Amino acid sequence: MIIETKELSIKEIPRFNEIGFFPSDAWTNTQPFSYVALIKLITKTPEAIGIISAIVTDILSDGYTFEGPKSKVAPAEKFLSENRFKTEFKSCLLDWLMMGNSALWKGKISKGQSKEFYEKLSNIEGIEIKETELKEIIDEEANKTKSLKCAPWSTMNIEMNEQKTMVTGYHQIVAGEKTTQFTPDEIIHGKFMQFDGRVYGFSPMEASINVLTTLSLIKDVNGNFFQNGGVPDWMFILAKEMAGSPQVKKLEQTLRKYKSSRLKHGNLVFTGEVNPVQMNKIGEKDMDFRMLSIYYTGILALAFNMPLARVAAILGMEAKQSASGTDLSEAGYWRSISASQDYWEDLLNQQLFVPEFGVKIKFNRGYLNDQIKEAQRDVQMFQVIDQLIQREAVTKEYAKLKLHIPDRFWTGKWKMPEPEIASPFGGSSGSPGSTPKNSQKGTAGQARVQQKKNEATKATERKEINNHEVNEVEFDNLVNDFVKKSEMRKINWYIQDGKYNFSMDTPESSYSYSIPVDEISSVKRQEWISHGRNIKPPLEKQKLKNELDTIREQKQKIVDSIVSSATREIDKNKEKSVEEIEKNKTKLKKVIDKVDKEKESLSTVQKIRDKVKKEMVENIQSAK
Length: 624
Prior knowledge:
Blueprint: H1 35-43, H2 46-60, E1 64-67, H3 70-82, H4 85-99, E2 101-108, H5 111-122, H6 131-142, E3 145-151, E4 156-160, E5 167-172, E6 180-182, E7 187-191, H7 204-207, H8 209-228, E8 234-237, H9 246-258, E9 275-278, H10 290-303, H11 312-315, H12 323-357, E10 360-363, H13 369-390, H14 396-402, H15 443-465, E11 467-469, H16 472-483, E12 491-496, E13 499-505, E14 510-516, H17 522-530, E15 532-534, H18 538-623
Parallel strand pairs: 11-14, 12-15
Antiparallel strand pairs: 1-10, 2-3, 2-7, 4-5, 5-6, 8-9, 12-13, 13-14
């Protein structure tokens, strides 16, 4: 469809989906239902108040900052301070969460008031103001917001035109007071949710009216039980006694006596037949609605995306969740809080701070886990992209796209890293604090490493030579003295030929003890094994050592064979090279001899030429 005119016609504008919504006047109530009744219901439900209060605190608790020039930030901060912004905005958020709508009123000086001020100013002698200057003053002052206040939404009504295509204004109806009119520019209207094109916002509290009603009734039932429950605690039946008998009077006197708090929980001796019956007992059946109230409280928390950990005090042991589940629910809740902060930032900036102060308000975020994860992801992504750019696999614009760099910050430059400076001792310089490899160590360093290896080998050989066989008592004493008192020393054990073989090392010697499997006590075996480690038997060690030696020998043979073959090939090629050199020398000598002969021939020819030339000169002279 081609639109030629600058202004759209009414038919081309989508309508608000408000069935039965008639064009309103200053006295018509256009609210979809009674917000006052909803507020009364919420105020009787502390669970709902706790959830709403927690959300408001999470949105506002970290404060706010302004983005913009310092010269413009100061007036904006002064404006909010003078108008008690935190208090007014908190009231606005409470309405927003409870009723799905909220209204911030922007107080401005009307043009009529500005004109009245001009007329008073004109009456003062000596002051003259032109009409154009008056218009500038009126327009400037009329567009400036002087005050900011929360308008209670339970009293607010929205006005629309007949076609239901635009909001024409708001009016406030307070019982017993004159109706107040507001233009759309004076009200910042916030909506928690906007369903199905409705002009009014929607709140989870509206969807939870039945939940709120039931929770309120549960408390009323239990409150009435305690308020009207005038029932004695016990009833004593004396089946064989008459009313007013001495036994009955005696029991009454005794019960009055023991009613005192100082005599409670004592013993009573009484003769005769007495049948006590308990009449006022509060048990589990009197908490019939406990699970229902917990379930409904969970519904309210879920409606606002609040994690169970925040309402665990109410839900008690009924709310059990794993650590990973708690982390996910916490992250989801804080993303919801961040989305709410984004919504109000956009709303306040578009309708107040940007057009009037030239700055943007920014609510501080208290949950930074997502930012930390994004930073870690950017670091890893940067390393990969940097390598790709160095190898010219991608363009710089690819880095801008993957790192989500805004255009206003992108310079288009990507400086390549400086090449590594080679170490003066050969090899790369390595990272700071890293231990150089053997190839990078000096002669003295390698000598110290080799000396330590030799000392360790000698210590092992010395312990093997000084290995002592001991009995069970001696070995147990050694365990108590050296193993149990040390965190590093362990007992080595293995099973071979139906015997347990235990061994341990001390700073000077090694000790071992062997005992058949069926003779060792289970207590001692468990004790030693708990302080030990299972090792391979010596025969298996020797077998592995022999196999390793065989592999080494085979490897050495292969290396020797390769070296020998390579040497022979080199010698063979060397002999061929010598023969070819000799042949080339002979050829070169022949060429040289041929050249020498040609030189001699040329010399003879030159001599003949010189002789002929000389004779010709002499003949010419004689002829003259």
